[in-house]
Amino acid sequence: MSTEANKSLVLRYFNEVFNQGDLDALEEITASDFVFVMPTHEEPFRGVEGYKGLVSMLRGCFPDIHFAVEDMVAEEDKVLTRWTARGTHTGIPFPTILGDVPAAGNRFLIEGMTWHQISDGKISQVTANEDGVGLIVQLGKILFPGQPSATPVPSSPEVNRHLIDRYFGEIMNRGDLAVIDEIMAPDFAFHIPTIPDPVRGPEGMKQFVTLLRSAFPDAKFAPEYVIADQLQAAIRYQMSGTQNGDFLGAPASGNYVKDSGTDLFHFSGGQITSIHVAEDALGLMLQMGAIQKP
Fold first, then answer.
1. What is this structure's pTM?
2. Less crowded by CB within 10 Å, the N or C end of the chain?
3. Nearest to 116 by CA among 281, 221, 3, 196
């Protein structure tokens, strides 16, 4: 088989077997002497029937489990795949070498790499490594010194709405940095596509807000609507301001700009643990003159 055919076979392994739970596809694409090897399993899984049990267990623990292929390289009869996997522990207890982990609704996102050996058009061996520590930490099985619990502590939607009011009213609109220490958790993370790595911790957020308000001293965030539950909240907002300082590599333009976006907040114990931002960054860059229309 060609390397492209081998890659297609491996994609079926992830998409059909794990993401869709199609065990018949597993029989189609694996050899009769199939072997699965992973360091966290003392003994390899041998044969299709044994491996079906592993797939069924994972999907029983994490009904929404999804593998995304991030990178793939192939040569001759071998394919190496780097993948990410995410899911929510809402099903059966998850067995680990440290004991079973009962479902608590925790979400996880981990990365791993898998070697596939192809023989006569079938997958004959799979050798995998994954971030097992990251997985069981996110599921709440182990806790390192100084690490907050992976299980969020719920509060009322009203409390979470009030935190959002303070975030926009006191921090983003008035630049009151002291409020950040009050309402943001020590492990807080701010995710925005225009910054490659998350802004981490209250101190990191203070730097971001200072940068933003130095660029737009008259910045005004106007919430349009909010929905909230005990652990999350989403808000649609409009932002306006005059660019009087450098921002995202764009020199001060003096232009009055408008931006719109949505923020997704996560909470635990009456504090904000993370914010994910989706905004019209392209429109903002155009208004600042950082990029030009052809």
1. 0.71
2. C
3. 3
